[in-house]
Amino acid sequence: MKKVTCSLLLLLFLYGSSALGQESAETLVTESAAFLKVFFKNRFDVQVAVVRFENDSELNDTAMQKLYQLLISNLENEKNIRISDLLINFANGRGEFNLGRVDDLHYLLDLKLIQNKSKTGLGLTIFSRLQDKIVSVKYFEKALSKGEMDFLNAKNFAFSKLGFSKLLEFESKRNLMDIQSISGSDGREQYFFYYPDEIVIYLASNMRLEKDSQFKLGWTRPVYPALHYEGKLLLLQTNQGLVLTAGNNFSSYAKVLAFRDSLWQEIQKIDFVPFKYLILNQIPYLVGASYEEGRNYFKDKIYFMPFSDPANRSGIYEKKAAPAMALDFSVQDGQLQAVHLIDRNYNYHLFSAEFEEQFPAPEKKGASLAALGGEWLAVSDYSRASDQLFFYNIQNGGQRPTYSEKITGEIQFISAGVWQNIKGFWTGVRQERDGQERFMVQFWGKRDGQK
Amino acid sequence: MDKSKLLFIALALTLIFAIKPYYGGEITIRLNEPTSFTLNTANYSNLIFYSLIYENFFYLKKNGEIFSNVFQEYHYDVSGKTLSLTIKDNLSFSNGKPLTARNIQVSLKIFMNSDLFAASKLSKTVKNIRVNENQVRIELLADNPDILSLLTAPELVVLAENEQSFSGMFFPQVWEKNHQLILNANPFYAGGRTYLDKVKITFNDSTPPDLFLANPNQFKENFQEFDSGIFQNIYLCFLQSDMGQNTKIALFTILKRFNEATGNKYKELRTLTSDEESPVSIKIKTMSPQKTASILKHSETKLYILASLSNLEKDLAAFLKNSNLKIETLFIDDSQLMAFLNSAAIQYLLIDKIFQKKVPAAEKISRILKESSFNQFNARYLRMLSELDEVKFSNSQELLMEQIARISEAIVNDGIIFPLFQKNYSLYISKMWPAMEIDYYGRPLLQKVSKNND
Hints:
heterodimer, A: mainly beta, Rossmann fold, Neuraminidase, 2 domains, four-stranded antiparallel beta sheet, 4 helices, 31 strands, B: alpha+beta, D-Maltodextrin-Binding Protein, domain 2, eleven-stranded mixed beta sheet, 12 helices
């Protein structure tokens, strides 16, 4: 009994310390943000960005990213401030920023973190680009305890108000492969759940999903039975109505279906699995790749198919990439920004829109991933021992880890999506408890991340 | 163990448990060379080999769980005494040809017509097999809720009309006789494509194997040892009734001496099943070398040996050559044997049988009597088997043992079969493959085995 009591106390202590741990740091940043809000109060549509951030304290690079992210998050909520997040990486005590867009800004911020005995200070300099001079310098100071320092230095990226959190969770039938949604004519969001043999359509109703309809997919030979079913669904609103593409790792072709006469009708077959619709040189394309039949990875080619007419499949061209466990495209305003890929050795790769490989983080590994527009990238861990979900901010070409969450079970897929007007990610998670397998669907979103 | 090895194992373990498992790689298995791709599960090595290229109707796990990769649904209707098996949609054999309910029906009939104990047990139960689209309906003569367990026999596999297509998780790609056989992953495997791309079956020690069979309690350092639950018995059978007792014992003596001369690779067997479970001990007195030589010197003896024992060929030929005896050894496949049975060509036959240790002794003795008495099976033996069945229902262990003893004595005294040797097997699997499981019949289940991704 003594042991139990001790463990309980220890747990309470740990919880208490970590919960309190970030308070001073949060206050330091909140005060800085409050100062900036007051400073910009009478200005309209002011464009601001941090362009320099240096560290002269005991805090490590991870902690610096957290502080930076917290400041950005605070300022993002101000209607008159348009904060640009230009941080690409924070390494060796300095932030690396994308300075190519400085000309669009009105004010530049310079931050410096300084440690003075037990206190930590944040120096803030505001530079007006239009006046070409420093317009304000401010210094904030707080006592950061050892515990708080440790907490900030630990590799958990979260601050409560920044984080992606699990907004929805429910159990699904096994082998769910993908979820996509589209707004219906009545404004209600329709959710398409893609299983190997059928698609089930749900309608959002308050905080629940109500089953609306379902239809069988009726695959024909050759069918390659798989141990792990994988597939991608894509919904498109075209001139000819709603079109859906469904491809997977057990059929050598993907289906293109159109909703006609109140029925989903197959209008075409495609030799690759489409999973993004984007515009290149003003031409709309379906972009995707082919799975190795029956296996859980894509072959090494990415296909681009002009898609102005859903029934036309001519003019497909391909780009060579690498065989991929996971693949997705970050797209901003319909334009391709980057290609995110996890290779067969579980290493993450980033390619530019021109398919040139970038090297933002050489050690990054993963298993599944999905990009949410050009803003966020979610990557699952690659080891079964402790699955995790990492969220990276990929705006402005950067790629910073901002949040991570332990997951009970194994993530089977991640898809970008929307729930209750909040943009985020759907995850399919396989859980096993007492020999019983369950398939859980989760939605992860930022509470302030409105669609 | 050096550091690099430790690192390698740590990396392997991490990646083996990767959430998206790694597809690719090959495993090397050392087995006896098969004679053909025609199903023949006479010995343990074959049992494993054919399980790689032929898919079983049902699998029986060590914990008693039954599962199938071929059927999406199976249902036993008590009132209609019918088992309905619904085949999965769009299945194909390794060459892409459709695998249909008709193939299931034909495969089941072929099995039921085979000369196997498990097959005759099933045929006694089944009244009719019908096909309706993707469903096979097995009508029974009498209610038998245990029908599914009869369908877990390792010999009951899905056969194609074409000999070059296979239903198993792998299919033969390259066969270098006396050296190795390469099997490729079947892209259409009903259970879902295996993680492994290839299986290399070696017939000698040229490549260090990842999986092999050997005597128990060896290779502790780098291999996991699985008690296969299997033993192999070797018997000398006499197929004609008018053969002299002296010649039989002389041949028996020679074979015993062969085992001694080759380092006692096999354990002496003094019963028809196993020494631990049999109520009787059979003692056949061997002869002196001089007497053996004088009996066998003048006769031209032809000893037929089942092809499943072909691993003895080299050593036995050398031994007989040294003994200056005119004994000719001829290796014969199971399928050929059936054709010879009604002629007088085969007098002496060396056979092997594999048994699951857990199977009751009564079932083993029934199997020996049915499968090894060949054309000498008669009404008396049939009566003895019926009596054995009756005794089984009596729940008297004493009576059961008595009947087993009576059958054993009868077939040995009638000079039909002499027990020779026994071999116990362990299955050794390299520690690099920790996810490997084995089924009730001691066969490794390779479907979910994945290579480390170094």
